[in-house]
């Protein structure tokens, strides 16, 4: 708050004058008025009177802007005693109107010569007041004035409107000129006439009433009649009783409706609670319709179950099923799934036997609830509920697919296949079901069955890519089976079918490789060996290709088509390491000796360096074969080890490096994993996941310092939120038992920090050591001159210690 | 209470065919390019009850309570009387209140 400076009685006139001028200039009109009044008490100077008059006017304007018209008018009157200037009298007249001093305002208006603009605005105000019932004003204006003459026309229009004679009302309006003081009245009155027939047109007219018009507020009120729903109710709640009744007339609400609307307004004040709404509807069910009221109230009960008794009192008893349903839904609303489930199960018990669809729907709803909470695979009730729902209603594909997915997730093969069979039986031509049927048959190695499903599916959905792929690989797999059985002709047919299914631009080469292998076996060039040595051979691709070169194998093949097909397959498979990998896998899959097959292909240079794309493609192939259930990927990669090791230097992205390391880890090819992990560590130093892969690749050759590195990496991974790496490190640390350090106690690595080695030793759980290891540890510590603590050396049978 | 059945103007026990017919009729009345909001409502209602299973699900598991606006809409729907002309007295009073405000 501004502190008022006390002005001493003895302040000089000069000082007061300066102060007063300053106060006036800075807009502190109230203080300026006081100061000039003091000055005038001392001496009557004209310049001070003029300044005081100015201060009064400015202060009056300030108050009027705040809506304090009465006070503004009084200040004007004070000013009038000081000067005869009538320059801003239109403002004063307006303030008088706003202060309800109409007669004085009208008298001053008629006496003053105002500019046209001010006259028009004030006339509009007086016109509105006349229409609002200020009859005194009729005497204040001359009978032949424009205001009163046109007022008569407006009265006629209004009377016609009240009597419902719109035609006469419009005729009267037409007589009012455009520049009339009643111009805005004419606009909103037109809106009033058409609001019933054309609410949008009425709304557009109402928008034309200017915000500073005396009718602006009334136009806004009429606009409320054009609203609906809760907006209307909210607007109504802010109106006076008369205004509400006026809107009711415009809307044509009858007494019953009005009664309910007023009750709804009361309910709205109670936050429209379900209880308030229940009471309103129950009290007005005859007007609202019994069926509607019953449904409305029933729909309220899940959010207000305490209202069940009230509902039953009004509408009669609810069944046990309905009561349980309401309670279940209420618990769902409160996010208490266990309680909701309890009541849904009670609902199922309440359902009569012939209403099986309802029961099935509830069982499925329970499953959906489990899914909503992300618990579907942890909840062992889920398969039972789904199975039960299918017992009630077997015609639900989604339930079958969910059941199949559940058992697949749980790796319960028996149930998985059982439900796939049931689904296929129920929906023999459904593409989703046929897809899972194909997957199931492939897993059971029932390739013929899988191909049959694929054919059916391709009839239903000829462009289904997945079906085409599965059909193709099923024919190939079945052909492999037939080749092993020596049924070459049948195998040829299967491979031909597979070839037809492959799109020309998407051929993988597998069909051609198998066709070649088939022909080589058919002519007796090679034959499968169940325990082929090559399966465990560590020979490189180069060695394998060269091993039989001297024998000139190519010339011994009778059917040159076989070599052509093999080479075509190699090319289609991408050539390079990917092509050879395909040939190796397919040959191994048929138990063929690689040393007899690989020399038939062009020799891959020993110094061949794969591209980044090739290596990534190879990893995708390995993963795809593994997913198909091929279990010899480790052996299949062995011939390519040397070539792949060299590829570690390629410029892989971090994510690619991760997938490569993971793939090689899965293959247990530590010699391959190590160069990749080490190069990754050079590029991304001490990245926890690469530390893990590097240490992992040293399996069996760990140093104690590796434990420290892993622990640090685990901490960092934890900080980075990389829980997967944390878990992998934890598992590896558990595997790193003391016996995994063959020479750890005898041969400390001189290059490593001895302190960190000792720290690692201190952290070892001595209970994990065998007595022999413990004794070796004690001896070593003694030799290093380290004080030996009281060790818990385990007692051996028969020895005291 | 505007249920999907109310929006499409079909009874609670309507068949798939009846619902689809009502839906198409409503869409013709409120095409998406001219009345996108209304269309969304109609589409949502159709998707909620277009099959027997969905209807059953709606009837069993829908638990959103009806609101005041829905009830008001119903109240206004049940009107039998027409908009009427207000009395001169009420008109003048309301006009006076608003003009003096």
Give the tags:
A: 46 helices; 68% helix; elongated; B: 101 residues; mainly alpha; 6 helices
What share of residues are in beta strands of chain B? under 5%
Distance between the amino and carboxyl termini of chain B: 38 Å
Mean pLDDT of chain A: 85
Strand content of chain A: under 5%
Largest two-chain interface: A-B, 68 and 43 residues
Quaternary state of this entry equals heterodimer
Question: What portion of residues of chain A is helical?
Answer: 55-70%
Our count of helices of chain A gives: 46
Low-confidence blocks of residues of chain B: none
- Strand count, sense and closure of the main sheet of chain A? none
Q: Summarize model confidence as the mean pLDDT of chain B.
A: 88
* Largest β-sheet summary of chain B: none
Query: How much helical structure, as a percent, in the residues of chain B?
Result: 55-70%
Quick description:
The complex is a heterodimer of chains A (801) and B (101). Chain A is mainly α and 801 residues long.
């Amino acid at each position: 708050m501004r502190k008022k400076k006390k002005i001493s009685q003895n302040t000089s006139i000069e000082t007061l004058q300066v102060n007063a001028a300053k106060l006036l200039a800075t807009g502190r009109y109230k203080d300026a008025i006081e100061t000039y009044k003091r000055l005038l008490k001392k001496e009557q100077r004209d310049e001070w009177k003029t300044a005081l008059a100015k201060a009064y006017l400015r202060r009056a304007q300030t108050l009027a802007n705040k809506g304090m018209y009465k006070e503004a008018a009084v200040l004007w009157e004070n000013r009038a005693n000081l000067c005869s200037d009538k320059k801003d009298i239109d403002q004063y007249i307006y303030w008088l109107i706003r202060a309800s001093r109409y007669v004085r305002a009208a008298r001053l208006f008629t006496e003053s010569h105002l500019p046209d603009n001010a006259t028009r605005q004030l006339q509009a105000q007086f016109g509105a007041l006349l229409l609002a019932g200020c009859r005194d004003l009729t005497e204040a204006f001359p009978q032949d004035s424009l205001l009163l003459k046109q007022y008569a026309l407006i009265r006629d229009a209004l009377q016609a409107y009240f009597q419902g004679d719109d035609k006469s009302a419009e005729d009267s309006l037409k007589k009012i000129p455009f520049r009339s003081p009643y111009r805005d009245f004419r606009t909103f009155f037109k809106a009033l006439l058409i609001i019933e027939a054309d609410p949008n047109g009425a709304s557009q007219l109402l928008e034309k009433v200017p915000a500073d018009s005396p009718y602006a507020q009334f136009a806004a009120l009429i606009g409320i009649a054009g609203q609906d729903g809760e907006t209307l109710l909210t607007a109504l709640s802010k109106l006076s009783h008369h205004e509400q009744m006026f809107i009711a007339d415009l809307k044509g609400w009858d007494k019953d409706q009005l009664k309910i609307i007023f009750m709804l307004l009361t309910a709205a004040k109670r936050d429209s609670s379900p209880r308030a709404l229940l009471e309103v509807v129950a009290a007005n069910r005859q007007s609202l319709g019994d069926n509607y009221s019953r449904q409305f109230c029933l729909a309220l009960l899940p959010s207000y179950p305490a209202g069940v008794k009230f509902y039953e009192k009004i509408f009669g008893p609810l069944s046990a099923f309905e009561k349980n349903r309401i309670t279940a839904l209420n618990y769902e609303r409160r996010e208490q799934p266990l309680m909701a489930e309890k009541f849904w199960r009670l609902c199922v018990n309440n359902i009569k036997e012939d209403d099986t669809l309802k029961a099935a729907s509830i069982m499925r709803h329970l499953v959906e609830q489990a899914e909503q909470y992300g618990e579907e695979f942890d909840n062992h009730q889920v398969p039972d509920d789904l199975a039960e729902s299918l017992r009630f209603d077997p015609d639900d594909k989604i339930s079958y697919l969910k059941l199949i997915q559940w058992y697949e997730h749980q790796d319960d093969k028996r149930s998985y296949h059982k439900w796939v069979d049931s689904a296929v039986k129920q929906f023999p031509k459904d593409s989703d079901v046929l897809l899972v049927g194909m997957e199931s048959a492939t897993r059971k190695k029932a390739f013929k069955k899988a191909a049959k499903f694929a054919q059916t599916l391709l009839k239903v959905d000829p462009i289904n890519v997945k079906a085409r792929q599965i059909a193709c690989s099923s024919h190939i797999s079945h052909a492999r089976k037939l080749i092993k059985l020596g049924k070459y002709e049948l195998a040829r047919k299967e491979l031909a079918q597979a070839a037809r299914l492959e799109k020309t631009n998407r051929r993988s080469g597998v069909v051609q490789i198998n066709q070649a292998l088939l022909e080589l076996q058919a002519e007796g060039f090679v034959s499968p060996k169940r325990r082929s040595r090559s399966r465990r051979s560590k020979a490189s691709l180069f060695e394998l290709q060269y091993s039989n070169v001297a024998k000139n194998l190519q010339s011994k093949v009778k059917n040159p088509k076989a070599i052509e097909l093999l080479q075509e397959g190699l090319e289609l498979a991408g050539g390079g390491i990917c092509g050879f990998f395909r040939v190796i896998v397919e040959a191994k899959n048929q138990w063929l000796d690689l040393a007899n097959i690989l020399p038939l292909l062009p020799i891959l240079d020993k110094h061949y360096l794969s591209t980044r794309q090739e290596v990534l493609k190879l990893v995708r192939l390995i993963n795809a074969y593994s997913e198909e259930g091929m279990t010899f990927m480790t052996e299949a990669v062995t011939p390519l080890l040397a070539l792949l090791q060299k590829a570690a230097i390629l410029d892989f992205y971090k994510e690619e490096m991760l997938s490569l390391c993971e793939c090689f880890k899965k293959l247990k090819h530590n010699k391959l994993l190590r160069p990749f992990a080490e190069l990754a560590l050079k590029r991304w130093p001490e990245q926890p996941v690469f530390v893990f892969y590097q240490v992992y690749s040293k399996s069996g050759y760990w140093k104690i310092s590796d434990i420290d590195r892993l622990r640090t990496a685990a901490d960092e991974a934890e900080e980075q939120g990389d829980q997967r790496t944390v878990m992998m490190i934890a598992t590896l640390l558990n595997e790193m038992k003391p016996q995994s350090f063959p020479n750890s106690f005898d041969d400390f690595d001189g290059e490593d920090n001895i302190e960190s080695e000792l720290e690692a030793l201190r952290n070892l759980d001595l209970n994990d050591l065998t007595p022999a290891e413990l004794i070796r540890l004690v001896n070593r510590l003694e030799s290093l001159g380290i004080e030996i603590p009281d060790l818990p050396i385990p007692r051996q049978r028969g020895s005291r210690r | 209470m505007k249920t999907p059945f109310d929006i499409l103007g079909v009874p609670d026990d309507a068949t798939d065919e009846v619902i689809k017919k009502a839906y198409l009729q409503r869409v013709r009345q409120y095409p998406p390019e001219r009345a996108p909001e209304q269309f969304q409502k109609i589409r949502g209602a159709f998707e909620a009850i277009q099959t027997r299973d969905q209807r059953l699900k709606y009837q069993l598991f829908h638990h959103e309570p009806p609101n005041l606006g829905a009830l008001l809409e119903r109240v206004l729907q049940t009107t039998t009387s027409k908009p009427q002309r207000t009395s001169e007295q009420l008109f003048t009073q309301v006009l006076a209140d608003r003009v003096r405000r």
